[in-house]
Description:
single chain; alpha+beta
Amino acid sequence: xxxxxxxxxxxxxxxxxxxxxxxxxxxxxxxxxxxxxxxxxxxxxxxxxxxxxxxxxxxxxxxxxxxxxxxxxxxxxxxxxxxxxxxxxxxxxxxxxxxxxxxxxxxxxxxxxxxxxxxxxxxxxxxxxxxxxxxxxxxxxxxxxxxxxxxxxxxxxxxxxxxxxxxxxxxxxxxxxxxxxxxxxxxxxxxxxxxxxxxxxxxxxxxxxxxxxxxxxxxxxxxxxxxxxxxxxxxxxxxxxxxxxxxxxxxxxxxxxxxxxxxxxx
Length: 266
């Protein structure tokens, strides 16, 4: 794959899901012991989740607070997230996919190695990339994105384009692949990614003033039935997930865009 020194990557997320742990605190302690040298800044967050249950008294709907732990690097460019049913790595300082997958596995490895407090079964793996496409001065957005993915800017007298969305989804041999292109969204990160964890790391705060687009791409693979962790080659599966994301990225951007992004940063 062609390396892009000036790539437009804004944010990358890798997630591994597993059956909910009865005592996530043990998993957190196990993981933190092995990653604290690289991710020394720790914080706890709570996120609401709607729980629906059917019991003797009928349907019951209640809101629960799910706890998450985040361990960030000193510069807050990288962070590991741990919840009761997931371990994730996310970053706003992406280098390349090999580096990301290596760091992701380093965060997971302690939980895969421990037979008591660790992960016994894997439910799903996923990657998500958010790219911000901003034309250089004197250029237009359609020089960077192919017409089929760029939300249209129809000329209407007395009206100026305020935004647009194009979304597609695909089935792959691995799972589900999704592409969403947002033109002039209110934030550079999609709303669900503007959460307390990313905000605390000061990610996604600056929004281009002119015409721009956000490419939001994710590819996930689920396991039904569950896959024993000892049978899962995380690095190989993540490489495969990334390859499809890179394929849809290459198909969505123009040769001119690739030329610009291949140049070394000034």
